[in-house]
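Appendix B, example 12.
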Amino acid sequence: MKTIDLKGKKAFIAGVADDNGFGWAIAKALAEAGATIILGTWPPVYKIFTMGLDQGKFDEAMKLPNGSKMEFAKVYPLDAAFDQAEDVPEEIRENKRYKSVSNYTISEVAKQIQEEFGEIDILVHSLANGPEAAKPLLETSRKGYLAAMSASSYSMVSLLQNFGPIMSKGASVLSLTYIASERAVPGYGGGLSGAKAALESDTRMLAWEAGRKWNVRVNTISAGPLPSRAAKAIGFIEKMIDYSEANSPLKKGLGAEEVGNSALYLLSPLSSAVTGVTHYVDNGMHAMGVAMNSPSLT
């Protein structure tokens, strides 16, 4: 039987700040396979997250099925809304939540990782943010819409621009998307649906460009709803979960580890000919055209 062995492989996961999201689940799956895990965490929560790690707050969540404990080689502060130091506005640099950290733009983090770890083999984009996510699209400002696009989709382009040159041949890149990219999901606002659509379109183009330039694969996972801290910002995540459980072909909840397992495959040599794909991990919800209470089913 084939197994996934990632010993000696180095993975950078951008967007992990707690233990209840998809990024954390992907980190655990990769760590169990033997990969070295490097994290990027949003500066405003960087100190809280790293203090929690030091104090053992996440020890239980870091336990792997084989009895060992997941380790992080390093946690970098990362704000993927900024490509280089000169892009950071004065009010951000002087913000008290940023003043205690430095070198947190995408290019600066890539440079530090190259200096400290050399090449990396796996890049994971687990980033999404929309400052006006609770607003309907018709009430979203230009500033809010562009902020969602910047943090949730262009950040993927920038990550690959900066990390592509330091990725090994045959390396793999993965992002996370959501069905609102292609279906209307009322309430998923603030431009986030457009940002996810852009992310999926960019996945296909980046697969072509990065594949030809660096022999790097690029895929995205369209995951079902999960009650993570980030998802709760939308405001009705529990209702989305209930709806998905009631109407998906597989009538059950979605576990973060199920996304982690699919990510492990897509980031491993077992998927060496898979690139440019939107891979659904949502209990089949993406295949449905009507809800269970539809008159067509009575």
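The mean pLDDT is 94. The longest strand covers residues 167-177.
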